[in-house]
Specification:
By secondary structure, the chain is of the alpha/beta class. Helix content is 28%, strand content 14%. It is built from 6 helices and 6 strands. The longest helix is centred in the middle third of the chain and has 12 residues, at 101-112. Bound molecules: magnesium ion (MG).
């Protein structure tokens, strides 16, 4: 059975941090108006502490929405692949309170993907050390390493990568879980 690494935020669900950041920001500073992934690039330095207080006071998964077909497709994939859910919990610049995100992620996974064994939950920012055959993530840097198939889930912050640029890194862009299902379950990929 091939090993499959799947990211959580902005891959299985919309990343609630974007919603919380937008709620916190002024109307003219919405995240979609920038292409940067990191919230620190959007929030004025003198408001960053306030933002972190605001962020940790809320459970980010109450502000996330499942991506269409995600759970159904992952459930089907779980019969054909050994799935590992690999998610970072470190908020840039706020490593002290970041571990608060681990129980929130764990609880959300138990509820959302009850068919995945919790021993297959991995919380790390160093995804390049994860030895999986296939990786699915919305961050290019998380697809580094020696996977034979690397799928980049489209998000506003990675739209600027052209197919040619991604191809050089051995990465293929996907726009939906139905597309992933087609690639991974319809023999396009020999499993
Ligand atoms: Mg992500």
């Amino acid at each position: 059975m091939k090993r499959l690494m799947i990211d959580i935020d902005d891959t299985i669900c919309t990343d609630g941090i974007f919603k919380l950041t937008n709620d916190f920001l002024d109307e003219d500073m919405k995240l979609e108006k920038s292409k940067s992934y990191y919230i620190q690039d959007h929030i004025p330095k003198d408001r960053l502490d306030d933002f972190h207080d605001y962020f940790f006071h809320h459970n980010v998964y109450d502000y996330s929405e499942l991506k269409e077909d995600a759970v159904e497709v992952i459930e089907k994939l779980s019969h054909e692949y050994e799935i590992f859910i690999v998610s970072s919990y470190l908020l840039k610049g706020e490593s002290k309170r970041s571990p608060l995100l681990v129980p929130r992620k764990h609880e959300w996974l138990l509820k959302t993907l009850p068919f995945i064994d919790p021993t297959h939950f991995v919380f790390t920012s160093s995804k390049h050390i994860i030895d999986c055959d296939i990786k699915i993530d919305d961050l290019v840097k998380n697809l580094q390493g020696n996977a034979s198939l690397k799928l980049l889930f489209t998000s506003f912050h990675n739209e600027e990568y052209s197919d040619e640029e991604l191809e050089k890194e051995g990465i293929r862009r996907v726009n939906s879980w139905k597309e992933i299902e087609k690639i991974l379950l319809n023999q396009e990929n020999n499993r």
